[in-house]
TrEMBL record:
This is ATP-binding protein. Residues 305-358 form the HAMP domain. It comes from Enterococcus silesiacus. It is found in: Membrane. The chain crosses the membrane at residues 21-43, 282-301. Signal peptide: none annotated. GO terms for molecular function: ATP binding.
């Protein structure tokens, strides 16, 4: 016997479709959950990034304001009266020894000791965040420089160098004339700002820039290699004295503040770094989700494999029965739950069939085939109906409505075939035919279409059973082309001027005009010998005998392809 392919590997089995659907649903739910958590985490991180950028701006702003206040306080200590202004000019104009003598003489006259190096040295004592102090007076070529290493300071020729240092600049004005005499520069330590920014974020992508009102870059802080960003800022400031905020905002969370003192504070946090940080934090979630997907797929595979093995046992036994081995029985010990119940029912049905076949062989009569069909039609019909109903209900419980509809249609056909009634109504006959076509439609999905229509007045019309079904069956045997996907058949029953008309049309292969003419001739003859059209012959004879001379069957080709069979007879009077 040819080895069967396992059910769970068969692309056309319901079990395979269920496995794929369940796997797809489970994987989709897990992925949707993971994506939702990831997106939520990302947007929360973006929100924290915006808060962090704002906090960084506020921190830098507060620090600059404090330093600016300190600088103004120190400046006032150097030029708040004319004597101090004179002291500044004397220091820049005299040697240090002459200036010292001048300071002593002023103390004797005014009881106020004004000695610039001493005053500056006191500033370092008052404020521990000063790195250097520079005083430049307009009328002198030298400038005064004091550093943390040399607090007293000294005069230096030339122009002071302020590059890459956090200098705050203040104009030195005469308090009386308000004349600008020079500039006062204080270099503050950046340590407090840098320490605050370092502990402010965990994204490793924060950058901060501070520019003075004149466009001088006071502070540059970065947690990442952002040479391109710095070059962009410097180039834009050099060209337009404006920050490229719009360009920076494309790739960064950005906060910008222009203080009342004229300072530009810019803080950026790289979106790419935030995304990298989020992905790093979610690595355990992604790994866990992947493991969960693999575990669920494995468990689902194992579960369906076990179920499919039991289905294969049943299908293998049924294959042997279909090949004529009626002694085959399903091993009920290898099945479980509903499959066990189904196995018991099939085994019982096979036992009954085997018993009835034995009885048939004991009946030695000449019309063996006819009697055999009669006996087989009696094989426990209620058991068969109940078994089919059980299968239909089980299919519904498993959500397979299509399989349930097929089982119901087949059960209806079986019940109609085993019914011993000689006649039926036109409505029941067409209902039986519709289920017959429906079963073909299920076997060949998306290839067959059908349409049945009946006048209300004809639903109760009595006619012999199997009057129309053979005509439809004839189409499926001789006329349909299963390689096409536009096959169609229709049945329309109407009452026109007291005459019943039943039209059966299809778009099948059709028949040649020569053969059609021969059939038409023989249908009109009382001696019919249509050996190739048993269905037509049978229906024509039975309906002619039942409805009398008014009955007429005509067969004509359709306009495009296929044939049309018209049955006409007078409406019977009750």
């Amino acid at each position: 016997m040819r080895k069967r392919k396992p059910s769970f590997l068969n692309e056309k089995t319901l079990l395979n479709r269920l496995l794929k659907n369940y796997a797809l649903i489970l994987v989709s739910l897990i992925l949707v959950g993971m994506v939702s958590i990831g997106m939520n985490t990302y947007w929360q991180s973006m929100g924290r990034g915006e808060i962090t950028a704002q906090e960084a701006v506020d921190t830098i702003s507060r620090s600059i304001n404090d330093k600016n206040l300190q600088g103004k306080t120190m400046l006032n200590g150097l030029r708040d009266n004319q004597e101090k202004i004179n002291s500044l000019n004397r220091y820049m104009d005299m040697s240090i020894s002459d200036y010292l003598t001048y300071s002593y003489d002023q103390q004797l006259e005014t009881d106020n000791y004004l000695f610039l190096p001493g005053q500056v040295k006191n500033f370092y004592t008052m404020y521990d965040n000063i790195e250097s102090i520079i005083i430049v007076l307009n009328n002198y070529n030298d400038y005064y420089l004091s550093t943390a290493g040399d607090k007293s300071g000294k005069k230096i020729s030339g122009t002071p160098r302020l590059n890459n240092k956090f200098y705050l600049a203040y104009p030195i004005t005469n308090p009386v004339t308000l004349e600008v005499l020079g500039s006062f520069y204080i270099e503050f330590s950046q340590k407090d700002i840098l320490d605050s920014l370092t502990h402010l974020t965990t994204f490793d992508g924060l950058s901060a820039y501070v520019f003075s009102s004149t466009g001088y870059q006071l502070l540059t802080y970065t947690e990442k290699d952002n040479t391109l960003e710095q070059q962009l800022i410097q180039q834009k400031m050099k060209e337009t004295s404006a920050l490229p905020l719009q360009k920076l905002r494309e790739d960064n969370i950005l906060e910008h503040l222009q203080t009342t003192s004229g300072f530009d504070i810019l803080v950026t946090i790289s979106k790419e770094k935030i995304l990298t940080h989020v992905l790093f934090d979610l690595r355990i979630l992604m790994l866990g989700g992947l493991v969960l997907i693999l575990l669920l797929l494995y468990l689902l595979y194992r579960t369906f494999t076990k179920y499919s093995q039991q289905v294969d046992i049943i299908m293998g036994s049924m294959a042997l029965v279909s090949e004529g081995d009626l002694n085959t029985r399903i091993n009920e010990q290898e099945t479980q739950f509903e499959l066990k119940e189904l196995s018991i029912g099939i085994n019982t049905m096979l036992d009954n069939i085997e018993q009835y076949i034995a009885d048939i062989y004991k009946l030695e009569i000449k019309q063996q085939d006819a009697h055999m069909r009669a006996l087989q039609s009696q094989i426990s019909p209620h058991f068969l109906y109940n078994t089919l109903e059980y299968i239909r209900m089980y299919a519904l419980s498993e959500g397979s409505e299509e399989l349930a509809d097929v089982v119901y249609a087949f059960s209806t056909l079986l019940r109609n075939n085993t019914d011993q009634a000689k006649t039926t109504t036109l409505e029941k006959e067409l209902s039986f035919c519709e289920k017959y076509v429906y079963l073909y439609q299920m076997r060949y999905p998306d290839r067959i279409a059908y349409h049945f229509e009946i006048d209300m007045a004809l639903k109760g019309l009595v006619l012999p059973k199997f009057s129309i079904q053979p005509l439809i069956e004839n189409y499926f045997v001789h006329g349909i082309d299963f390689s096409r996907n536009d096959n169609a058949i229709s049945v329309k029953a109407s009452l026109v001027d007291g005459q019943v008309k039943v039209l059966i049309r299809d778009n099948g292969k059709g028949i040649s005009l020569q053969k059609l003419a021969l059939i038409q001739t023989k249908l009109q003859s009382k001696q019919i010998e249509l050996h190739d059209s048993i269905g037509l012959q049978n229906v024509n004879e039975r309906l002619r005998a039942y409805f009398g001379p008014s009955f007429l069957m005509t067969i004509t080709p359709n306009e495009t392809k296929g044939i049309a069979i018209m049955l006409t007879f007078d409406e019977p009077h009750s």
